[in-house]
Amino acid sequence: MEIALIIAAIGLGFASGFHCLGMCGPIALSLGLSKKQQANFHLQNLTYQLGRILTYTLLGALVGIIGEGFQLAGFQKYVSILAGVLLIFMAIFSFGGDFASKIPAINNALLKVKINLGKLLQKSDYSSRFLTGILNGLLPCGMVYMALTASLAAGGIWQSATFMALFGLGTFPFMFAAVLFGNLLNAAVRNKILKIVPIFMLILGALFILRGMEIGIPYISPKKEALKVEKQKNANQNSDKNCH
After folding, report:
1. How big is the CA angle at 108 (ends 183 and 148), to the nearest 5 degrees?
2. Residue 217 in 3-state DSSP?
3. How buried is 232 (Cβ within 10 angstroms: 0-12 exposed, 13-18 middle, 19+ buried)?
4. 155 three-class SS
5. Element (H, E) at 101
6. Which domain holds residue 20?
7. pLDDT (average), residues 217-231
8. So what's the pLDDT on residue 237?
9. Are 49 and 137 in contact (CB under 8 A)?
């Protein structure tokens, strides 16, 4: 995977962390974990987080099937430009809050997921924590949709899956800390920070458009020929290692 995509995935996840505290934080705080047994507390918290990241990774793999089709058809640069345009479009709508919550069908799906989450939150075993994380990852969320749109430009199944896994890892510090320390930031501070997130999305969208334009900027918008040379170089290096 390109360095630019790795940075974009982790950066997008980290920027989404404050949004996650607002959307998923209440669920994390409802886990009812007790700090009486520190090891058990941290393991259950980690199990919950891994469930979320697994869902993001699987969603990325599904999106990657489409991305791989575009890659084989030679449309990858157009997909990158389209992903950038969509990211900018979603970022503009995010200035008024999470755009996903404004869609009726998504709100209905959200209600069903919350009902199942409510049942799991009453249990305290590891499998329930893991399933809670998996369902949490399925909650309709504008930031996740932005990440999935960006992962489409990664160009393949494992690339998109890796992009979403890195996105999940980017959200990890905030979500793990939310369970560990409780409500880290009050609503007023969170809302101020959330206003910055769409600006980051606009920048990310512009980067994806530049990437698709292939105008020759190293790491940001390399020409197609340069990417082929880099891939061949990596392939030769791997071949040499296998020979030794």
Report:
1. 70
2. strand
3. exposed
4. coil
5. none
6. 3-213
7. 60
8. 57
9. no
130 by DSSP, 3-state: which?
helix
In this predicted model, which residue has the larger pLDDT, 206 or 4?
206
Contact by Cβ (8 Å): 170, 10: yes
Of residues 232, 50, 240, the one with CA closest to residue 131: 50
Of 231 and 126, the structure prediction assigns the larger pLDDT to: 126
Q: What's the start-to-end Cα distance of the chain, in Å?
A: 25
DSSP 16-67: HHHHHHHHTHHHHHTT---TTSHHHHHHHHHHHHHHHHHHHHHHHHHHHHHH
- Reading the block at residue 192, the tokens are 């101020």
How many domains is the chain built from? 1
Model's pTM, two decimal places?
0.74
Residue 218 included in any domain: no
Whether residue 55 is contained in a domain is answered as yes
| pLDDT given for residue 221 in this prediction | 65
Question: Cβ-count burial of 244 within 10 angstroms (0-12 exposed, 13-18 middle, 19+ buried)?
Answer: exposed
* Any domain includes 241: no
Give start and end residues of each alpha helix (H) in the chain. 3-23, 25-29, 38-73, 76-94, 104-121, 126-138, 142-152, 157-181, 187-194, 197-213, 224-243
136 lies in some domain: yes
